[in-house]
Amino acid sequence: MRMGAVVAAAFVVASGAGSAGELTLEQRVQRQEDIQAILELIHEYGRLLDARDFAGYAALFAKEGEWVGGFGRLKGPAMIRAVVEEKMSPRDGAPAPGGVHVFSNERIRVEGDRATAVTKWQYVVPGSDGRPITLMLGHYDDVLVREDGRWKFLRRVAHGDIPFHDPLADAPQ
User: Fold this and answer.
1) CA distance linking residue 24 with residue 118, whole number of Å
2) Residue 41: pLDDT band by 50, 70, 90 thresholds?
3) Are 65 and 155 in contact, with CB atoms under 8 Å apart?
4) Sign of the alpha-carbon dihedral angle for 98, 44, 135, 166
5) What is the number of structural domains in the chain?
6) What is the mean pLDDT of residues 111-130?
7) Which domain holds residue 116?
8) For 157, which of 28, 105, 119, 141 is 20 to 30 Å away at the CA?
9) Is the pLDDT of residue 106 over 90?
10) What is the pLDDT of residue 107?
């Protein structure tokens, strides 16, 4: 039932621009459907990245989508795919990293065909004894857009909180 609680919490934030009484039932249902679709997009991002499905991963970004993080500032799905594939593919016969992205504390604000979101993330890897350890903690700042009827990332900034990394300070504007 955790997902229901997350959706309910996200709905409260999303409807913050006006009280629920000011919106029609149709508008409230649409907003709830948008929030659910955005949550699914956020979770699909982690699933595809962990599965090393770089084509599917890049397709989550809008035509003018941008990713800003440890690999720099990447613009457009083709560039995002190429760089992430190059940086995250196994090298010299080494196995692909076996980490898992974990997301939480999603806050989503929907305004028509645009939205913003903040999501906490963890990157968990197997320790030397095989038990999970958190390698990194951070948060994403997202701008999302409805494109061709589907929610996509227009801009995703991956901040490192522990260890600290400010991708906006490193990436040229």
Assistant:
1) 26
2) very high
3) yes
4) positive
5) 1
6) 95
7) 2-170
8) 28
9) yes
10) 98
- Measured CA to CA, the distance from residue 30 to residue 100 in angstroms comes to 32
For 40, residues 6+ apart whose C-beta sits below 8 A from its C-beta are none
Residues facing residue 145 across a β-bridge: 114, 152
pTM, to two decimals: 0.83
What's the CATH code of the domain at 44?
Answer: 3.10.450.50
Average pLDDT over residues 82-100: 78
Residue 1 tokens read as: 């039932």
Give kind and range of the element (H or E) at residue 100. strand 100-111
| Separation between Cα atoms, residue 89 and residue 46, nearest integer Å | 16
Top-ranked range on mean pLDDT: pick from 22-26, 59-63, 96-100, 163-167: 59-63
* Angle in degrees, CA 144, 39, 153, rounded to 5: 25
- Asked whether the beta carbons of 123 and 101 are under 8 A apart, the reply is yes
CB contact at 8 A, 172 and 151 = no
pLDDT band for position 98 (cuts 50, 70, 90) = confident
Cβ–Cβ < 8 Å for 37, 132 = no
Q: For 145-155, what is the mean pLDDT?
A: 98
Q: Encoding tokens for residue 51? A: 């599965």
What is the rounded distance in angstroms from the CA atom of residue 45 to the CA atom of residue 37? 12
**Rounded to whole angstroms, how far apart are CA atoms 147 and 153?**
9
